[in-house]
Amino acid sequence: MLISGGVAMTRILTDPMAPSTFSPLLNHARTHHIGASSFLIVDILLLLGAAALTISFSQAFQACLSL
């Protein structure tokens, strides 16, 4: 997930036609790199879900050990 997210960020940020300031860069990425932008959003959501499941599993494991 981290590698594919890094590749998508590199694709967006190394575009020679992209503006150098932050707000116009986001607008450019949203209009010209729709696939990479949507992939990053889904990748971040999956990463957050995996992190939440990992944390809840470790808490459940600790609770089972205390029984």
- The amount of beta strand, in percent, is under 5%
Query: What is the H-and-E element order?
Result: HHH
Mean pLDDT: 91
Contiguous low-pLDDT stretches (5 residues minimum) are none
- Multimerization status: single chain
Count of separate DSSP helical elements: 3
Helix content: over 70%
- Rg is 18 Å
Number of domains: 1
Class derived from helix and strand content: mainly alpha
What spatial form do the alpha-carbon principal axes imply? rod-shaped
- Spatial separation of the terminal alpha carbons: 35 Å
Explained architecture:
With 67 residues, this protein is mainly α. It has one domain (2-65). It has helices at residues 2-13, 22-32, 34-65. The radius of gyration is 18 Å and the shape is rod-shaped.
Q: Which characteristics define this entry?
A:
0% strand, 67 residues, transmembrane helix, transmembrane, 3 helices, membrane, mainly alpha
How does the SSE layout of this entry go?
Blueprint (H helix, E strand, L loop, with lengths): L1 H12 L8 H11 L1 H32 L2
Helix pairs in contact: 1-3
Brief synopsis:
The protein has one domain (2-65). It has three helices and no strands. It has helices spanning 2-13, 22-32, 34-65.
